[in-house]
Design brief:
Elements (H helix, E strand, L loop, with lengths): L3 H18 L4 E10 L5 E6 L2 E2 L1 H12 L3 E4 L5 E4 L24 E5 L26 E2 L3 E2 L3 E3 L2 E11 L6 E12 L11 E16 L4 E12 L1
Length: 222
């Protein structure tokens, strides 16, 4: 299960190495890929933007206090990370299982330019086999790797088109899930969009084909 804490831990590791070697820069980027059924990369683009929710969630981890995050339904809810003397607090996750389009790596039909305060995809493609629907598989995440000054975290998810017609993907995103804390009477949880990218070149997923959606986070010292 990937957690935002994993990313934070990677940042801290790289910062430690940065200070020890006196390097002069740090860059955190995310890249989106779509691979066809043969594993060929048909699209690779750097993301348009980290979104506001990602920064707020990161702040909640660093500060250890509840922060208000705008969720995908347009409401605002308090997100609290880490541990307390009362209970384990939930941590943001994109580790969605098969059949869920409410969080994890998702695709959409919208092409409106990304704004930093976006909280949902413009036109999310839901899970299913109907018109303009995709079947979402399980999100998998590799352990972080460190090579040549860059920490890399790779997240992947298969998406299958069984709708009976081609579907043109125009946007992709990463939605984090936050479980409610029963100790505080909150069992509902919530979902927040942390990355959205509008494809420079839309990708057609043909009927009865499975593509792989990949979101790679890279933390690089310069």
């Amino acid at each position: 299960m990937i957690r935002i804490l994993t990313i934070l831990s990677a940042v801290i590791t790289l910062l430690t190495r940065w200070f020890s070697t006196h390097k002069s820069g740090l860059k955190i980027t995310s890249t989106w890929e779509l691979k066809d059924p043969d594993g060929k990369v048909v699209l690779r683009e750097e993301s348009n933007s980290w979104l506001d929710a990602f920064g707020v969630i990161l702040c909640a981890i660093l500060d250890g206090t509840e922060k208000n995050v705008k969720e995908t339904d347009g409401s605002t809810d308090g997100w609290l990370m880490g541990y307390s003397q009362y209970a384990i607090k939930s941590v943001a996750s994109i580790a969605a299982g098969s059949g869920s389009s409410t969080y994890g790596l998702v695709a959409g039909l919208g092409d409106t330019a990304v704004e930093h305060d976006d909280y949902e995809l413009e036109d999310l493609i839901p899970h299913g086999t109907g018109t303009d629907e995709l079947q979402y598989g399980e999100v998998t995440t590799n352990d972080p790797s460190y090579v040549g000054g860059t920490i890399t975290i790779v997240n992947s998810r298969p998406v299958t088109n069984a709708s009976g017609a081609g579907i043109t993907v125009k946007e992709v995103g990463a939605i984090a899930y936050h479980a409610g804390n029963a100790s505080y009477g909150d069992t509902s949880g919530g979902y927040a969009l942390i990355d959205r990218h509008v494809l420079g070149t839309p990708v057609l997923i043909g009927d009865t084909t499975t593509f792989t959606l990949t979101w790679t986070i890279s933390i690089t010292s310069a």
